[in-house]
Write a structure and sequence with these properties.
Chain lengths: ~210, ~220
Amino acid sequence: MKPGPRTAAEAGLVLCEICGLLSRPANPEEPGHCPRCDGELAFRRHHSIQRTWALIVAAAICYLPANVLPVMTTSGLGGADEETIMGGVMLLYTTGSWPLALIVLIASVMIPLAKLIALAYLLITVQRGSIRNNRERARLYRLVEFVGRWSMLDVFVDTFTVALIQLQPLMAVLPGPGVLFFASVVVLTMLAAETFDPRLIWDSSTERTTQNE
Amino acid sequence: MTSLPENLIACPDCDLLQRVPPLPSGGKARCPRCRKVVAARKKDSLDRTMALTIAAAIAFLVANVMPLMGLSAVGRTAGTTIIGGIHEMWVQEEKLTALLVGFCVVLAPAVKIGFTLAVLFAARRFPAPAWAGTLLRWAEMHEPWAMLEVMMLGILVALVKIAELATVIPGVGMFAVGALIFLLAGMTAAFDPEEVWERVRWADGEAPRAPRAQSAGEAGG
């Protein structure tokens, strides 16, 4: 096979992330704007690694209060009752709907944590120039992108429980401070997944094959 | 600018350069290196998406105007709409959360549906005006944040939680949300944004190259 440029970046071409047009910028130092959609062009997303790390660290900081602080407070004639995310899972489990308890456990507790670990793993392997398990890492990234939205589940559960149970003075459900932290974890990890550039996973492999040829 | 071979593309996920052979209608091409779907030809993409989008717009209006559910407990009744739920969150001093929920279940789906509809109407002309590209970009930016199916599951969980406290009657809004979820998924499945981009007037003022044979027929009309 004739050795030639394998990637667009090697060939001096840049793919517009908005409209998908492949173009050859006049000045590779400053690719400028896409001739078709006028979107900003970049060979790789700007400062992808640093920005993704920053978002992950911020999300990890919010993860603790999100799980410790109550997301809902039920106040009735018999006093007030606070509920955390895990408390909500336990409540669903004890009232007999374990499938829903499992869904909430996965969506609210496990997915955010798994996303943080997965993105950190992707960043570390990219920074170390790893060329192993590229396809698996690419698949992991797509999975992180795909499941992220489902973590918002608990925010909706809280919103609609609060909206429905307003039977003052008998009983009312109020949102707790945990909701905002929890929503922050979800939004920050979603932004982190959007900031990470999956092409970085493959760049080390591209460099090595080019050197060998 | 030197012109590039028309079938040359780069994989958006791994940047590998590759040539895509002409695909049959309904065909898909995957990147040989990372397995990302890099091209897909969808049948009657623009017309089918328009039909689904119009239906989605109607379902969206109904879902936001009609009550999601009614509730009766200890001799009292209450009900809520989507906006009502967001409003309650706002009143309870969780303003940021209220804004976020509003964005994910009202604003983002509205932008996606409304802008897609505008783009599809604009793309009936050839060449389509450049603003169609701008709106398409906005519609796609909002896509990951439109979370109606997550909201539906959230409502289900909330209902199970309060089932022992109250009787809940699903309202018209709930059925509209259910329909909307399928219509939005259908829009994504039927839509080929590339077909719109091929018709849009370029930002640098150039008219696009002739559209593919499939769409050339409608261009005259």
